[in-house]
């Protein structure tokens, strides 16, 4: 088989990408010659110091931002402008406050002009899967932060995207809710088989959920190291936390992040 | 009477008793000032006389009230439609925004009383100049509030919309415009009260009907009771239109009203995650 096949079978292929922002005073290089391949169905976590370019990386993949140089390929097709075959979850749930939880999820279907009966059925499945049952008709301000983020997740999954992008989705939640959300996201990922790129500040979260953890350096971000997570596919939360592989992976990442942020 | 009804009733009383007491106090002072002869009756008529006149001459006043109300509503509706369209154009086009903003501001700072005579010269003594002055008064707050509202949508929501691929029209209809409605309503409420002023100013300048005309006539005849009655009716028209908009807002944006109100408690009682 030729090497072309490996490229086209990646869900996401980031090839020698740099991003420079032009501000009034100076030019800021956010990302410098980053390359990364993500296999279909893979869960990849991205960690790195604040402001190093993690959000920028996800915006590149979704096509919300164009690279200054290099190419991004999503599902075999080069990214040129906003892509519709992804799901996106931000740190803030970004819900429409006049719509109920269910109708917020269905916004995805309305914007895409999906068949409404099918979309409704799919929304109900997702509501069930994420434990939102009983809160379908609640308005966003009546939901807790964790619930709001579940709604955002359902909305991002409604059209069954093959790639899910998450930018610090649990960053605003308390520790306990965050753990619950981790367990749920793990289950959702196992059930849907979606490719996930997760940006996070939590080292534990990055390791628990992922097949691989990408550690970025300070700005301009380059890939510092890629850690293969050597844990079983199906992960019970407490059992995983207790494993020596988990401890060594998190310790290693902490070292790397300490090394890149330490001598500031 | 069950407890919910009792609570609601108590709420109404709680909200209204203070303004009602203040109004009563004002009427009492007005009454005392006139009864004691502190102020001459031809300068300030007593409340009894004023309200008596209001009732006696209602057939005369009601026709003029209707004229002013009609001019106000027409001016308000035109200002509302033009204002929203202008705001949308300004938000979606830098060029329109930079071109229109200075002119808009200029049009706003020109005293309407000073240009009203011009409209009478151009358009005569009919309702048109009054409507135009009302539009000019009401337009600005609608534009400013709608622009603010349309710009208040957070960028992440718009980025999400871009990944959903609905295009600009669906993004506007489903996301941007509804998000702007609370701001728009705030602007409309200011606008409607200004439209009343605009219509009356238009009538002052040249007219043979409307409450502005009534007041001007009463003034000329030193008929202070009629002058006071006219003022009271104008205020009532403004207050009524304002309350109608307030009601429309509550009906159309229950999510916005309840976010500020106490309806949250019902769901919190059910328990969150
Ligand atoms: N639109 C922009 N214009 C200018 N600079 C930007 C822009 N977006 C991001 N940056 C800069 O690029 C760097 C990376 O940003 P970001 O990707 O948001 O970092 P983070 O890793 O915290 O998500 C930051 O220093 C930020 O200030
Ligand atoms: Mg970020």
From TrEMBL, chain A:
InterPro entries: AAA+_ATPase, ABC_transporter-like_ATP-bd, ABC_transporter-like_CS, ABC_transporter_ATP-bind, P-loop_NTPase. PANTHER family: ALIPHATIC SULFONATES IMPORT ATP-BINDING PROTEIN SSUB, TAURINE IMPORT ATP-BINDING PROTEIN-RELATED. CDD domains: ABC_NrtD_SsuB_transporters. The lineage of its organism: Bacteria, Bacillati, Actinomycetota, Actinomycetes, Pseudonocardiales. The keyword Nucleotide-binding applies. One of its GO terms (molecular function) is ATP hydrolysis activity. This is NitT/TauT family transport system ATP-binding protein. It holds the Pfam family ABC_tran. SUPFAM superfamilies: P-loop containing nucleoside triphosphate hydrolases. Keywords: ATP-binding, Nucleotide-binding, Transport. Residues 12-243 form the ABC transporter domain. Coiled coil: none annotated.
UniProtKB/TrEMBL annotation, chain B:
Its main location: membrane. Residues 65-245 form the ABC transmembrane type-1 domain. Keywords: Cell membrane, Membrane, Transmembrane, Transmembrane helix, Transport. The chain crosses the membrane at residues 21-44, 73-92, 104-125, 131-150, 184-206, 226-245. This is NitT/TauT family transport system permease protein. Belongs to the binding-protein-dependent transport system permease family. It comes from Lentzea waywayandensis. PROSITE patterns: ABC_TM1. It comes from the Bacteria. It is a multi-pass membrane protein.
């Amino acid at each position: 088989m030729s090497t072309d096949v490996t490229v086209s079978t990646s869900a996401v292929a980031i090839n020698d990408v740099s991003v420079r922002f032009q501000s009034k005073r100076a030019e800021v290089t956010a990302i410098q010659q980053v390359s990364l391949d993500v296999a279909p169905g893979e869960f990849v976590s991205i960690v790195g110091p604040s402001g190093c370019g993690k959000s920028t990386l996800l915006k590149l993949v979704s096509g919300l931002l164009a690279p200054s140089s290099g190419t991004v390929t999503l599902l075999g097709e080069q990214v040129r402008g906003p892509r519709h075959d992804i799901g996106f979850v931000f740190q803030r749930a970004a819900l429409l406050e006049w719509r109920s939880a269910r109708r917020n999820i269905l916004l995805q279907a309305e914007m895409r002009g999906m068949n409404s009966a099918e979309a409704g059925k799919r929304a109900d499945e997702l509501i069930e899967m994420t434990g939102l049952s009983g809160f379908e008709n609640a308005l966003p301000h009546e939901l807790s932060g964790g619930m709001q983020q579940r709604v955002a997740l359902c909305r991002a999954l409604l059209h069954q995207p093959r790639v899910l992008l998450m930018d610090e989705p649990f960053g605003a939640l308390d520790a306990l809710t965050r753990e619950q959300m981790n367990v749920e996201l793990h289950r959702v990922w196992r059930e849907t088989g979606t490719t996930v790129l997760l940006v996070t500040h939590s080292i534990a979260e990055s390791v628990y959920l992922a097949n691989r953890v990408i550690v970025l350096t300070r700005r301009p971000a380059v890939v510092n190291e890629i850690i293969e997570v050597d844990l079983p596919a199906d992960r019970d939360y407490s059992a995983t936390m207790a494993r020596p592989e988990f401890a060594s992976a998190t310790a290693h990442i902490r070292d790397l992040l300490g090394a890149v942020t330490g001598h500031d | 009477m069950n407890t919910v009804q009792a609570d609601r009733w108590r709420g109404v009383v709680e909200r209204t008793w203070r303004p009602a007491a203040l109004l009563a106090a004002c009427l009492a002072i007005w009454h005392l000032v006139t009864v004691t002869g502190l102020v001459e009756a031809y300068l300030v008529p007593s409340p009894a006389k004023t309200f008596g006149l209001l009732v006696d001459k209602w057939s005369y006043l009601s026709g003029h009230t209707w004229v002013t109300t009609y001019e106000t509503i027409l001016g308000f509706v035109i200002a509302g439609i033009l204002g929203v369209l202008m705001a949308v154009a300004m938000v979606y086009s830098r060029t329109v925004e930079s071109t229109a903003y200075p002119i808009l501001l200029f049009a706003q700072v020109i005293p309407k009383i000073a240009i009203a005579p011009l409209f009478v010269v151009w358009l005569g003594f009919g309702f048109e100049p009054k409507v135009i002055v009302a539009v000019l008064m009401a337009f600005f707050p609608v534009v400013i509030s709608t622009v603010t509202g349309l710009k208040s949508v957070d960028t992440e929501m718009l980025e999400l919309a871009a990944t959903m691929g609905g295009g600009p029209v669906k993004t506007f209809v489903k996301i941007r415009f509804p998000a702007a409605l609370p701001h728009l309503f705030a602007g409309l409420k200011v606008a409607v009260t200004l439209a009343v002023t605009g219509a009356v100013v238009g009538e002052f300048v040249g007219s043979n009907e409307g409450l502005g005309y009534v007041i001007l006539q009463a003034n000329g005849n030193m008929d202070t009771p009629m002058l006071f009655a006219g003022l009271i009716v104008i205020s009532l028209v403004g207050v009524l239109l304002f309350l109608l908009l307030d009601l429309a807002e509550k009906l159309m944006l229950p999510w916005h009203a309840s976010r500020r109100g106490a309806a949250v408690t019902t769901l919190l009682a059910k328990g969150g995650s």
